[in-house]
Amino acid sequence: MSGNRVLVTGAPGNVGTDVVRELVAMGCVVRVGAFDVALARQVLGESVEVVRFDFLDAATFAAAFEGVERMFLVRPPALGDAERQIAPAIRAAVTAGVQHIVFLSLQGVEQNRFTPHYKIEQIIEGLGVAYTFLRASFFMQNLSTTHRDEIRDESVIYLPVGDAKTSFIDARDIAAVAARALTEDGHARRKYTLTGAEALGYDVVAAKLSAVLGRPIRYARPNVLAFVVRHLRAGKALPYVLVMALLYTLTRTGNAKDVTGEVERVLGRPPRSFDQFAHDYRAVWG
Q1: Which CATH class is domain 5-137+170-195+258-271?
Q2: What is the percentage of the chain residues whose pLDDT exceeds 70?
Q3: Domain locations in the chain as residue ranges
Q4: What residues of the chain score a pLDDT lower than 50?
Q5: Global model pTM greater than 0.85
Q6: In this predicted structure, what is the pLDDT of residue 115?
Q7: Residue 222: its pLDDT value, please?
Q8: Residue 191 near residue 135 (C-beta atoms within 8 A)
């Protein structure tokens, strides 16, 4: 597999960046398809091939897909219309010779047909190409990226989840599973539900962060409307905010609480704990 080029989308990003690092360490030939080439090179270094790739610009497809056999696919958060905004690139990839697509999907997607992830899974299956769906629970790294500023600056976690629990997974573990799926046989047409080893309520998450940071972190329980208004006022795009609100509403109903052992089955080791994540990333909330 080391001689076959792998295209990685979603880098630089939580999972995509770590997928690149895993693949490079394994000796794979990696091409990164990035919207912002300069930023990708800054994060990944000059030794990784980076080409411009934009799901909304078909002129960028040929250079990205040329000579690629396997592809790691991440939906850009701002793109919610799977058929119009994502499908053309997927179809172009298969036409160009991509044989296996590893798609970063969503835990419980099979029961939530209104999510873009469900529609993307259906598009991929309809093309007859080999696939691996990584149906991941919420990333621990959402707290160190998307929600970093409110934790750092306001010492609050502001999410409309109520008392529901979430089986958080470290994005580094998702990346490790993705790298295996992209380089090993036996992962085609598999749908892995990837979670951490335990489900935690956000009150527990706040307590764990408080212990690591040495100051109290409060878990606020806004309703969905207040959550949407807060993020719109912060300048976030409406489609992005609505998808976030939908996912957190599903979490509130218990959609993200189930724990599986699939990370350990694929990697041969347990997933990282939330405590380990909080320790490793504590500087971002300092």
Answers
A1: alpha beta
A2: 99
A3: 5-137+170-195+258-271
A4: 1-3
A5: yes
A6: 87
A7: 94
A8: yes
The alpha carbon dihedral of 33, 38, 40, 45 has a sign of: positive
- At 233, list the tokens: 């006022």
Beta-bridge partners for 71: 7, 101
Sheet containing 130-136: give its strands across. 49-52, 29-34, 5-8, 68-73, 100-106, 130-136, 190-194
What residues are paired with 130 via a beta bridge? 100
> CA 249, 254, 255: angle at the middle one, nearest 5?
75
- pLDDT tens-digit series, residues 174-211: 999 999 999 999 999 999 999 999 999 999 999 999 99
Q: What is the pLDDT of residue 250?
A: 84
Q: Which residue has the tokens 């499908």?
A: 87
Task: Decide: 129 and 100 in contact? Cβ < 8 Å.
Answer: yes
The dihedral over CA atoms of 193, 196, 199, 202, expressed in degrees to the nearest 10, equals: -110
pLDDT at position 173 = 98
Q: How far apart are CA 12 and CA 114, in angstroms?
A: 27
